[in-house]
Amino acid sequence: MELDLMDGILLIFFGFFGSFINAIVGGGALITLPALMFVGLSPASAIATNKLAASMGNLTSSLTFFKAGKIDLKLIGPLLPFVFLLSMLGAWTVHLIDAEILRPLIIVMLILVLIYTWLKKDFGQDGKEKEITKKRKMISIICILTIGFYDGFFGPGVGSFLIFAFVLMGLDFLKASGNAKLINLTSNLAALSMFLYLGQVQLIYGLVMGLSMIIGAYTGSRFALSKGITFVRIVFIVTTILLISKNIYDFFNMA
What pTM does this model have? Predict the structure, then answer.
């Protein structure tokens, strides 16, 4: 498919904006996926192409958070190969099962995440890591690996779920966001590999949006690091509300 000038400008604009938000708390696909479909891509092709662009943005975010000391490779390094494999499996499974059957469950889970975060005011807020007990760590690891599969299979809300899992483990919101970026990058690359194999990625569209997402990701990451934990928590809550609203809208329009 050829990309005309106006469509290219739209992809650059929405790619930057989506990546800026995604770099802070995830949820950038709320912006980038509709943009890709607006310029003429089918839903399946838009999801696949978005993985290419998102991978470029998440790589930038991951490097920025890593340089700032907000990513713990000792903690998450052993998980990365498993996340990669599970996400690739998820991307393959989506061809066998209709992913939309998950949407009601995702809405409920997002609402629970929102309620818990809203009511527990100090959740991930104090800037001090809580003791990572064996039980807490095991529960979080299971959640993270499940989210890895889910990202390849469906995807909406991945950023929110990953951050919640890391805060549940004992990290503050800023460190949770940093570690979530590297996990999300890994799952994106795995799903992208499968979608490339299946021939569903529109390379020109993905690269144009991806280049703007690199700039948006760097800007958003620096913004989050300068504004601190309270800011990230607020954006997390707002983004989760938007994710819930979008999924409810899609569910009722699908019915």
Answer: 0.84
